[in-house]
Specification:
homotetramer; alpha/beta; Rossmann fold; Dihydrodipicolinate Reductase, domain 2; seven-stranded mixed sheet; six-stranded parallel sheet; 11 helices; 20% strand; globular; amino-acid biosynthesis (chains A, B, C, D)
Chain lengths: 344, 344, 344, 344
């Protein structure tokens, strides 16, 4: 039984880790931290957990307790994992960070986008970007995992087969992404109110969103060179879900794009290439660790349109984190992640 | 492995049976029927099932095939189970009916509310009303189960402790109930459109709803005599969930109502009595087979207010049906039903 | 042209005043205050106002400027009107307060429910409770108006005809009310997030809500004596709307309740008694200054069920405030308030 | 007073015409037709209209009655206006068609996309495409107006300034559009159910949507030559609103795009160019006849991103129809269309 610690468990990725780990046969949450909710039972904050975690309460972060865990998940704002990861690694604990702290390989670039110095640049060398569909081998046995962001997961899984095979104009990629409001976290912000985000749609951060450098980094790796990406995120009136609509121009229009995708993801348990002509709905992955992808070429032109959907809290965060844990510890990658999406 | 058949699998209780049974370690769906979707793969209609039921397709109802199952669930409009249940019982198959066909013990009353003759009155004698918290012993080994309706489940579980103990004025019970739109099923009705049911709230069927006689029947049984119930259902702009707000007048104000509820449901795996002062949210049971109940006495008067929430598709339908199956076959009642509610 | 000032214009009742007053032929907003948004154009905060208030900016409250207005609306948290109303009245300005500051006639009761001393008890003598359907004559020419709360408006208009005529048991009134999330205002609270309030339903403040004493005060006045009211508010996943479901027991079952309501409200421009058997939807009043009421007697018993719907921001706040302004200044009560509700 | 007839008044564009015309000082609805609802009062179908149209009932279409109107709006499925428009024009009545019947100038292309022969090709010569921002002069005095579709309105208004000035690569235009569910009309379709369209997002008709040829036709006219457009519509869980996110590649990056848009629309009452850096929300135009546009150049590259929002039922249908009526009859274009958008 793997002993799990969670730092920063009051947010949505925290409760989602608890929900999923309750079904995991070989993992057990033994510590969950929160400064603000110290002493509060997790079931008081999240009544859906009643009957599943009745003995578990939030506690202030304590490196000794966390260091006694086999693995610690960081479900925290950026900066927190920077401060604690090193000590935990020294204690022999694996660290799986759901925040952005170790996603960018370039500490200066991180610093530019997050507006503060990188707090653990010395650890970047061993941080593995936890996108199993790309880095499965490096994840196996890794000590420090940077779980990809939600937009980056949907976007990279959508673009990868094209870029890895040099099939499109890498300089003209567009990712028009739509996210549910839970992507903004459980923070008391006016813009996330039901009365503000409901019954409306808007783009945001068109000038530049923090996920842009992360996506670009991943696409560069896949393309083996520079890429030009325009990324426009939109806030959508739903709780969960990301719908990425991706546009790229084929340099070779004779390619069988559908077949390419089916082959690329044939052995991937958590990427589902839909039949040609499909329009995946975000609800088809609600609560499930799954990315569903569909491929289109409207009017048979050279523009390919990829539709890629995930649940931002699962394949876009906590589910993918557990998938990484399973790989790190050499378990079946699918453990605890086989529930059916909730529809309707 | 219990072989399961599902009649009428295209509706929401059908897909919900599939979702939950995918996680059941001792049951396997071998037949699912639909006249309109004959030959269609279940994953084509419900992409969330992709990877879980890839070989399963809808077929037209065939008594021989269904009769070869250990148990058949009816997820059908009323009348269908009347027509088929007898033959299946004769074939040795257990029948668990999610429709209203066998809920009312009085065939004439059924006929009055449903506007057609009762088609299987001779089976009423052995039909067991599948509310485990009341009829667990009769369910064990039963051949024909009538799964309670959604409003009746939330309302009865909320009222039972008071009525069983003769603590309230049985003639003045009020159930003000709020349901998500999935209670209306997957039928192409204008009133269920997003554009009609969204961003709005309304009462309906105040004159008399078909669940009224079912609830009254259950409350009479609990009270051991006549009851007077006013039942006002409301349509609420959410997909899943029932919130029952129940009002009753105490005849003895010295009773410890909170303690009474805690004792009554202490051993019930799927009824959760919340701490005093709680306000259960429907989302705390979304996707889970659970009824959460809270007890209030506003301003310390003689009026008691019970708040009772369920997911109408789970504890109010498919989950409760599986709970019945587990009991019927002598398995652990909780098998396949231990997932955590999806929140947020 | 009436010169209007608005104190606290950044909240939802503030923007709603602006929306409605833009259509008012005889009123003009000349001052709008906000400490936090001093200098910001109203159209920057509320882009829906672009083209309508392009020259108007928030300013810090200034008694001299406000005192130069013919009328000042307070769209503020409680306590603010206490502090400023006296000075404005001295300056000859009419005050129409949308907050709770002057709703309760008893300063001690106010203090008990709001947890602070009443800051302007000396003004209570001339404060008029601005429910035109009850106090139209007192409103005409009044200097200080307390605009009723949202729940109190829907509930009182629903109960009044029964209580004014002594037709029900006044000791056993129940108001089961459902409100959209905008009732919680434009405050950055976790409980009002889209991710918390969406796709869920819950009761709240069952122990005692601040609108309880206000409703009781109004019902006592109508009944000419004590009343016993149980008030259970619920949070509903919609932006606007209140649906009050009211229960009372007739003492005389021979009365024509439908006729009674039609007669009581025959001349009221903003109360619409629906045909017998109706189920009013909240969306039928979205954005409109209207209360629609329907009367039911389920199963012909002695329990009467009243359904009363309003838009909490219009007839439950800003629209009613303007209705009061029209009456105060002797104008046609309907000026600026004749728009059709937005449906769908 | 202009006498108005409405053919097919039971759908959402019908009720929206009624809502807006109720505020129009110089128009009066005298006939509204519906075969299915013959004899039903409009207020029975749409209670929000109570008090505004109490004497108006649906009637079966009668050319004599319609021909006595000054103008007839068609709020019908395609094909109906083909059948009736000619007779009405002969009777001297102006026809403003909200359906797709006269939008495409090429009858064969229409036939290809709509799967039936064009029923009134002889009228195409005088049909004016009712986008006032392009065709104001032709609309003035026209007898037959084809009101643009919702997606075409948002998309054309967004692209026009770029194309009219030859500033972008016309062969690589992308319109990623998101629509509320009311765009699918008031038809009893499973895909439009609250339970299907709620809490989810999906693309649809990527292969080819009927609005594609209409948009292309308009863009060709603006560009003075062929264009290559990829149009991907998405279904969004909101009732009203279209958000068009438009992508084009500048051929001259020295142009002041913001200034260009401000100049192009300076005199347009119903196009609002937002300040640089803005992200218009669809709710900022809810219920209002307005298109708000914002211009971006992410990372200062040669890709320009235009955000264009409308209410699909107003500027995308009924509001624009009334705007056309105002122009046709030489009235102030803004009559009846100056209400403020409903926010929140």
């Amino acid at each position: 039984m793997i002993k799990v610690g969670i730092v920063g468990g009051t947010g949505y990725t925290g409760v989602e880790l608890l929900r999923l780990l309750a079904q995991h046969p070989q993992a057990e949450v033994v510590v969950i931290t929160s400064r603000s909710e110290d002493g509060v039972k997790v079931t008081d904050l999240y009544p859906n957990l009643r009957g599943h975690y009745d003995g578990l309460a939030f506690s202030v972060p304590d490196v000794a307790k966390l260091g006694a865990c086999d693995v610690v998940f960081f479900a925290t704002p950026h900066g927190v994992a920077h401060a604690l990861a090193g000590e935990l690694l020294d204690a022999g604990t694996r660290v799986i960070d759901l925040s952005a702290d170790f996603r960018l390989q370039d500490a200066e670039e991180w610093s530019r986008w997050y507006g503060q110095p990188h707090g653990a640049a010395h650890l970047l060398g061993e941080a593995v970007y936890g996108l199993p569909e790309v880095n499965r081998e490096q994840i196996r046995g890794a000590r420090l995992i940077a779980v990809p962001g939600c937009y980056p997961t949907a976007t990279q899984l959508g673009f990868l087969p094209l870029l890895e095979n040099g099939l499109v104009d890498n300089g003209r990629l567009i990712a028009d992404c739509k996210s549910g409001v839970s992507g903004a976290g459980r923070a008391a912000k006016i813009s996330s109110l039901f009365t503000e985000a409901g019954e409306s749609m808007m783009a945001y951060a068109v000038k530049g969103h923090r996920h842009l450098p992360e996506i670009s980094q991943g696409l560069r790796r896949a393309a083996g060179g520079e890429v030009g990406l325009t990324f426009v995120p939109h806030l959508t009136p739903m709780i969960r879900g990301i719908h990425a609509t991706l546009y790229a121009t084929l340099v070779d229009t004779s390619v069988d794009v559908q077949g390419l995708y089916e082959k690329r993801y044939a052995d991937e348990p958590f990427v589902d290439v839909m039949p040609a002509g499909s329009h995946p709905e975000t609800r088809s992955v609600r609560g499930a660790n799954m990315c569903r992808v569909a491929v289109h070429r409207p009017q048979g032109g050279d523009l390919v349109v990829i539709l890629s959907v995930i649940d931002n809290l699962v394949k876009g965060a906590s589910g993918q984190a557990i998938q990484n844990m399973n790989i790190v510890f050499g378990m079946d990658e699918r453990l605890g992640l086989n529930n059916v999406a909730l529809l309707p």
